[in-house]
Every structure is written in structure tokens, then in C-alpha cells.
Amino acid sequence: MEDMEQLKIRFPQTDTVMMGRGVLADPALGRKLKGGSAATIEELKKFHDVLYAAYCEEMSGDRTILYKMKEMWFYFHPIFTDGRKYFKKIKKCEKCVVYESVVKELFLKENILEK
User: 83: which of 2, 77, 90, 102 fits an S-S bond (Cβ 3.0–4.6 Å)?
Assistant: First the structure.
């Protein structure tokens, strides 16, 4: 948020900003930049579930799907209290069923870090 404030001060004519991978690190980034609240655990789970379901529908094979999800978790895991531990488990997953179990456990046991 501080970076956005500095950007507004330095370039007051700017009315749009590209967030890129920042949205993977914080799916509520757009809302927060407008003064809104951080994402809830339920919103983060829904974000994950929708993305995962779309990958499962569009791609074939556990390896391809998990490659994309592991990439997402590189940015997403720091949001959670013990995200690093779960990211290590996710990186080791070779089957979607194992991945789903690890992610389910994370969403049940972990909280969102305060920022």
C-alpha cells in the first residue's frame, strides 16, 4: 500500500496500475488499494478452488495441473501462518489427490498473516 501511495505522489496523473503477479500474492490487492478489507480465509479458498477447477477442466494430466498450481503457491504461500511448511509439501505432490489433501489441511489449520 505504501508503494501505491508513493506512486500517486510521484505520478499524480496515473489513474491505472498493472498489478500482475501481485494478485497471486494477495487476491484482495485491488480491493485493498481502494481502501477495502483484506481477503478472508474463505475468499482465499474460493480463489484457489476456482483457479484449480479451471486448470483441471482445461488441462490434462496431474503433472500439468500441479505445475500451474505450484507456480501459484510460490506467490500465495506467504499469506498463511505456516505457509512455508505447506508449500514444501505442495512442491512434493505428484498426484492431484495428494495435492487436494495438503491444500485442504492448510485451509483448515492455518490462518492469514496480518499485514
Answer: 77
Domain count, the chain: 2
Helix, strand, coil share of the chain (percent; to 5): 70, 0, 30
Q: What are phi and psi of 71, to 5 degrees?
A: -60, -45
Residues 60 and 76 in one domain: yes
φ and ψ of 44, to 5 deg: -65, -40
**Per-residue confidence (pLDDT) for residue 7, from 0 to 100:** 80
* Cβ proximity of 65 and 72 under 8 Å: no
Residue 95 DSSP one-character state: S
Q: What is the pTM of this model?
A: 0.83
